Fold:
Amino acid sequence: MLKVSGINLHYGAAQILYDVSLEAAPASVTCVMGRNGVGKTSLLKAITGHHAISGGEIEFDGAQLAKSAPHLRAASGIAYVPQGRDVFPMLSVKENLETGYSLLPRDQRNIPPEVFELFPVLGEMLGRRGGDLSGGQQQQLAIGRALVMRPKILVLDEPTEGIQPSVIKDIGRAIEYLRDTAGLAIILVEQYLDFCRQLANDVYIMDRGMMVHHGPASDLDKKNVRKHLSV
Structure:
């Protein structure tokens, strides 16, 4: 579904990513881990087109994306839930969800029932403003908005950050459903080790802008792997 091959990324003169490669398959969760500041979010911005790469290739569903604009990548089936959620605070929950319509043909401009099946609280709060929701509810709204786009791949940047444990469980169940039933490819940037171990099929670990490990989730129990995650 997605193949990232040897990409480099710069912010001005500073190089952030060094020959980074990654693959994500349908019906699979690919988890990217690492300490703060190692380039995980920059990798997601490269994949979704929010920051240009300075070398390498990104291939999605057979098409080269390295020079494709973010809205074209979204239209091709890449949905991005950024760190911090970025819901529209003055719009209602329903209006936030409807912003996902912009890339859809008219006959698909509806909210899929799975959104409310996965996150029932959204159905109960359709008229409430996005800015009035709790952090966990906003995270569910951000994921629901991404699902309105009918994506082929879902890119999540630290969805458990600052979220209460009950909502983390809800998000975990939603990811399992989207992987196992809907067959989505999911890229998950995460620092919560148990959450990643529970959900991931493949794990990549980054350090100083480079990939230093790739393997199954069971590798997270190995001492030589966990050393890359300790502070």
About this structure: The radius of gyration is 17 Å.
